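Let us practice reading a record.
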Amino acid sequence: MRESDLLRALAPDPADPPAPPAVTLVGVGPGDPNLLTVAAVRAIAMATVVAYPVARSEAEGMAARIAAPWITPAQRRLPLLFPMVAEAEPRVAAWHAAADALAAEVMAGQAVVLLCEGDASLFASCSYALLALAKRQSSCPVRVVPGITAVAAAAAAASSQGLPWPLALQQEGLLIRPTPETAAELEPLLDRCAAEGTVLALLKLGHRWAWLRPLLERRGLLAQTLFARRVGWPDQLLLPADQVPGEEQPYFSLLVIRQAWPVVLP
């Protein structure tokens, strides 16, 4: 089914009552518009206002780009500034402003979706808006629609292209976290995961690959590590890490490090 046909099929029936005023956080997945869930597409279709985070006032926003096929011209767009800065004060001010703007739309009778790249609850900028709403606008109705994470999408895409890469099996654990800043932080993390039988997924790789690749090579882990870059986008790349050169990688790159396999396997 084409996207236009699916959008028509999921569009609200004019005979149905309008969606009640509320804020719905919608996880839109890592990049591919086809990875939005049916619940996500339905939530977007029923909204009168589509809000999304932007790093700069003139930017489009990655979540809005991902969900673009499911947004109609009749829906009003509401970009919300989430500055990518280290200082706490401007970030907190932006979260408060976003919560107040969302609540104001709901008070005006609007059904609002706030688009979140990936999953709405995992390392999501929109989670701060959720917390700010609970603190500042506790009477504002809120619901959350989960989305596919980049880690899950990377494992599925790798398996689909002939690199079987289950994230976790049997009694294994799975630890997902941003890539540490230094080798001194990562070494004990790898030791712990090896001892516990835990698969380690490292997000936001970027420039850290320059020092991380030699570390994995020294520990004999390169061939057991999945490298994924810009999962879900047209320039997606998935490779065993030993096939990836050591230069800096894009920020939206990740690793899935498997140090061992369960004893019982096919």
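A brief commentary: The domain at 3-145 is CATH 3.40.1010.10 (Cobalt-precorrin-4 Transmethylase; domain 1).
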